[in-house]
Recover the amino acids of this structure.
């Protein structure tokens, strides 16, 4: 037997109670794992870059910018590459099957965010074989069951074609994987010229200009210089990093991060109350045994460590189960949910397991440590 | 810590005063109590309830401190030690046998016996070997993997004795070790304590209500109202 073995046996002496505690911890960390994955994934903000900038209309993201801005932005010192982007949202087949299409100029798009999206030259060559050719993100392709060469039609919500129809047929030329698992790949990458030439209104306008600063140029310094270019124009601009842009987009609906943080905090507080309460009662039942251990020569610090280890044992076991289930769920659930269980989520969850384990064990451990031997013996 | 060999008694209590206080009253237990016990002695302490037997044992075990006076055991001043030092002292020099065995129910007999060895820097193989030898010594060879609840009272007390002696302490304190046992089991335990005293040289202080149990000791001390009345007896 070792100290660890003694701790394990002490913890498991009431198996039913411990199993319930472990389940509570597991459920809490399962919820945490899912919500943290949601925030990490939250439609791509985790992988969104602080280096890439997006220029949009200061009046709102639904207002267009003239394509003519492209050359002026590209000529600005410090701008390495810039690509126009138009967006098209619509459904494929079922009206509830919503698909987002971002259209840009392939070469420019590759120069700006080809690395992040994992675009290679062969994909661009494939795109070049027809105006209606598109690249589809891996998550979307898997969700829809699409393969290269397959055709699909997006029924646009807003963008009409010149012939009055809303249907935009596309052919899949390639599937991109993204740089990491947290990269948002739940969209279609189309060609600007196809959308621009085909649409009935808003020709030669863009929704956004995506740009990459030259190496050594700070994006936060470049952004105000771009906006200053168009301050007195008919369409003033607002330049944000990709991350700021996505966060701003999400906060239009609700402050998702704060809501999720609040829910998770409530879960953790409830969990702590349950665990601390249960452990305090469990230790009260064992005061006599703690007295015996102290009589045998176990020091106060030794008792403290043992009780802390018991709390950590419960949290490590329950936490591992919960985090493991959350990881499995993030893999099993549809990519449309945008769950990304990456290393940062794992690290934060692990740190929380240790932190909460120690916190939950602290009160019972201090109480056990301070219990005078003679008073412990009187509890028999 | 080492036990120093000196000419002074192994256990020396001098001018010990102890009282239990509540807010309103103070109940004196000892007033200037003196006691000397030589190394290797087997001493039984008897007395009516409330005479201070348990308090004496608590003082000797370092579980409680005196209000005044000195407690010296094996040359070390117990009353000068802090709690951590007293814990370490107990772990190295003291074995305690309880009336109700006080075995941890979630551990097997051998794991209960091994507990004091966890505080020593022994490798697992040495610990296992010592546990096996000690269980053999108390006649429980083959019972090591049993849960205490599956053992008889006498067997549980033997596990308690094994736990008390496994770390080879010089002093054994026994608090009514036969108080919860039938006569036959009690006699076996007393025989074992006698063996530990005579053959292994353990100094034993045993508190008991049982005159027959006290007969197993070299010396019987009667505590009455916080003072000793000593009766010498001839060892059989």
């Amino acid at each position: 037997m070792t100290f660890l073995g003694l701790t394990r046996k002490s913890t498991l002496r009431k198996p039913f109670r411990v199993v319930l505690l472990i389940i509570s911890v597991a459920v809490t960390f399962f919820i945490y794992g899912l919500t943290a994955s949601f925030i990490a994934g939250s439609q791509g903000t985790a992988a969104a870059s602080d280096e890439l900038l997006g220029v949009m209309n200061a009046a709102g993201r639904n207002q267009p910018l003239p394509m003519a801005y492209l050359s002026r932005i590209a000529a600005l010192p410090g701008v390495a590459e810039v690509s126009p982007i138009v967006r098209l949202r619509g459904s494929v087949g079922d009206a509830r099957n919503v698909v987002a299409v971002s259209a840009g100029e392939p070469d420019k798009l590759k120069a700006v965010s080809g690395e992040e999206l994992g675009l290679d030259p062969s994909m661009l060559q494939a795109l070049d074989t027809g105006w209606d050719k598109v690249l589809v993100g891996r998550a979307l392709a898997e969700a829809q069951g699409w393969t290269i060469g397959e055709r699909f039609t997006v029924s646009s919500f807003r963008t009409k074609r010149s012939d009055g129809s809303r249907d935009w047929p596309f052919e899949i030329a390639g599937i991109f994987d993204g740089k990491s698992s947290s990269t948002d790949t739940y969209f279609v990458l189309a060609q600007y010229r196809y959308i621009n030439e085909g649409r009935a209104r808003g020709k030669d306008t863009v929704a956004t200009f995506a740009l990459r600063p030259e190496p050594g140029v700070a994006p936060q310094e470049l952004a105000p210089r771009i906006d200053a270019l168009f301050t007195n124009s008919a369409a003033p601009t607002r330049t944000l990093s990709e991350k700021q842009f996505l966060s701003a987009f999400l906060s239009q609906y609700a402050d998702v991060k704060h809501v999720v943080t609040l829910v998770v905090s409530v879960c953790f507080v409830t969990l702590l109350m349950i665990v601390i309460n249960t452990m305090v009662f469990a230790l009260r039942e064992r005061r006599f045994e703690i007295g015996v251990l102290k009589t045998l020569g176990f020091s106060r610090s030794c008792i403290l460590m043992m009780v802390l280890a018991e709390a950590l044992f419960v949290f490590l076991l329950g936490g591992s189960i919960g985090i493991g289930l959350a990881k499995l769920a993030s893999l099993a659930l549809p990519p449309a949910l945008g769950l990304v269980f990456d290393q940062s989520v794992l690290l934060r969850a692990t740190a929380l397991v240790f932190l909460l384990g120690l916190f939950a064990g602290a009160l019972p451990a201090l109480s056990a440590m301070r219990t005078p031997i003679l008073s412990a013996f009187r509890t028999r | 810590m080492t036990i120093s060999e000196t000419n002074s008694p192994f256990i020396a209590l001098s001018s010990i005063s102890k009282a239990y206080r509540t807010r309103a009253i103070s109940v004196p237990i000892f007033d200037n109590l003196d006691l000397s016990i030589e190394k290797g002695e087997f001493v039984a302490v008897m007395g009516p309830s409330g005479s201070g037997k348990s308090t004496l044992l608590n003082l000797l075990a370092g579980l409680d401190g005196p209000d005044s006076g000195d407690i010296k055991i094996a040359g070390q001043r117990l009353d000068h030690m802090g709690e951590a030092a007293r814990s370490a002292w107990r772990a190295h020099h003291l074995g305690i046998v309880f009336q109700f065995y006080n075995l941890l129910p979630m551990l097997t007999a051998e794991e209960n016996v091994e507990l004091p060895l966890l505080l020593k820097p022994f490798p697992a193989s040495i610990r296992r070997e010592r546990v096996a030898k000690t269980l053999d010594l108390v006649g429980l060879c083959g019972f090591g993997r049993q849960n205490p609840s599956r053992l008889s009272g006498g067997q549980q007390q033997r596990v308690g004795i094994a736990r008390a002696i496994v770390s080879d302490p010089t002093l054994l304190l026994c608090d009514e070790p036969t108080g919860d046992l039938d006569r036959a089991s009690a006699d076996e335990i007393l025989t074992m304590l006698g063996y530990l005293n005579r053959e292994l040289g353990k100094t034993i202080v045993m508190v008991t209500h049982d005159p027959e149990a006290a007969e197993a000791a070299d010396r019987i001390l009667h505590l009455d109202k916080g003072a000793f009345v000593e009766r010498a007896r001839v060892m059989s």
About this structure: The interface with chain A takes residues 58, 61, 63-64, 83-84, 87-92, 94, 96, 98, 100, 102, 104-107, 111, 114-116, 118-119, 124, 127, 163 of chain B (CB under 8 Å). The radius of gyration of chain B is 18 Å. The CA atoms of residues 19 and 80 of chain B lie 19 Å apart.
